[in-house]
Amino acid sequence: MRPLLTVVAAAVLLLLIPLAAGQGFRGFSYLLDCGAAASSTDTRGLRWDPDGPYVSAGSARTLSVQGLLDPTLASLRGFPYRPAVKFCYALPVDPNRRYLLRPTFFYGSSSPPPPVFDLIVDGTFWTAVDTADDILAGSASHYEAVFQARGRNLTFCLGVNSNYTTSGPFINALQVIQLHDSVYNATDFGSSAMGLIARTKFGSTGDVERYPDDSFDRYWQPFPDNKHAVSSTHNVTSADFWNLPPPDVFNTALVAEQNAPLVLQWPPISLQNDSYYVALYFADTLADSSRTFDVNINDYQFYKDLTATSAGLSVFATQWILSGLTRIILTPTSVLPPLINAGEVFGLFPIGRLTITRDALAMESMKRSLQNIPDDWIGDPCMPHGYAWTGVTCLEGKNIRVISLNFSSMGISGSLSPDIGNLTALTDIFLANNSLSGSIPDLTKLGKLQRLHLNDNKLNGTIPQTLGTIQPLRELFLQNNELGGAVPLNLLNKAGLTRKFCPGNQFSQPPC
């Protein structure tokens, strides 16, 4: 199948397109040293802060591995093994801005094998983390993706998937970096996110290029090739490129031999048949010079008669179909041979659905009115599939709705928020055997409610007469509270209702 092009001329945008004006924003970014007790500054002058203020679960652990070059690897936060539970970081962000997320994982030992677990961002499944190969090589594992913030908080979560292993997830470091409005702005982040496959500085034999050369701390991996590598010095202006690559990536290149094409297998892994974002960067190694060549990816023309000058340029496609091992083929159409300086490849994956806003807001309101709640009540209450909050059951239909609350015997205290009445798809409420206090809120709008178990708490006040107007209600258990007044007649006389009001309450007209 021919690659899908979303913009005329192979989805290419060239150098010198004006950058999008960045309207005023707060610029939220985070460098979190997970499990650390105090802030620290690395060799690049970047400050790393403890992750504790942003997560409510897990425990810190210090690794005994000696000689670590990256101090953020010396500690980690480990989470318990609780299948189908997601443990989340909640980070204030600017809505609708794009963020680069890079979690780092270093288990410190290959025995026992490190756990495998899921990464989730704002209800969207990102990928599974498997660090086994990197641990055997003695290195850390980095994952990177670009997401658009969907609200004023971005949630980054580690999901416990019992299909993988039987131990809990962990994390050593987390970077969440706000990108400039121009960076990767050709992607529709309302429907997709981007997961990094490769970011490469061709011809480089040095270290990974990152901050301060790259202001967003993107990692540009070296790609040595003694036969074709060339070094030069350029005055390329990064601000002229939408993706704002660091100028130094144009100082190395792979150059074809005279009158021959340059053929690269890149990225260096086999890819699934899918859509990918591909960006390639070029700059002539000779001052005030240019060369022209065709760019093919596998058997398809990516760009014809591309003219690279010493000022540099970039071409990219937003949805290019790739499969298996990929070859970049640069074929000369001028005297000077073709070259390439850098490249990026991202996989595109769909943004997941979220719980309907009304239900999500109601659950957040309930969360604020309760104490001793489960530590996984962060992020979307229902999504992604299989990762609903503890005690919450959802229905994934046209809208994603909360249909059942089962918090019985969970040690919860506090009061019931009136907003529970906005969960209009509820069929079951089981809150028995806790320490709930306050009154029973108005549940009139819960027109599908069949079972309401509030027994063995500390609820006070009277029983709302409106409970008798909920037609599907079949079970009402209120015993062992501190309720008083008269039991409404419409509950006493309601046909088909199994009710338990006694013992433990102080009704003026005992219904027992």
Automatic annotation (TrEMBL):
Q: Which SUPFAM superfamilies match?
A: L domain-like
Is S-adenosyl-L-methionine among this UniProt entry's keywords? no
What's the domain of life for this entry?
Eukaryota
Which cellular component terms (GO) are annotated to the entry?
membrane
Where does the record place the Malectin-like domain? 32-346
How the protein sits in the membrane? Single-pass membrane protein
Report the leader peptide range.
Answer: 1-22
Keyword terms of this UniProt record: Leucine-rich repeat, Membrane, Repeat, Signal, Transmembrane, Transmembrane helix
Question: Do you know which InterPro entries this protein is assigned to?
Answer: Leu-rich_rpt, LRR_dom_sf, Malectin-like_Carb-bd_dom
Where does the protein end up?
Answer: Membrane
Keyword Signal on entry: yes
Q: Which PANTHER family match?
A: OS05G0393100 PROTEIN, OS07G0107800 PROTEIN-RELATED
Q: What is this protein called?
A: Malectin-like domain-containing protein
Q: Which organism is it from?
A: Hordeum vulgare subsp. vulgare (Domesticated barley)
Q: What is the lineage of its organism?
A: Eukaryota, Viridiplantae, Streptophyta, Embryophyta, Tracheophyta
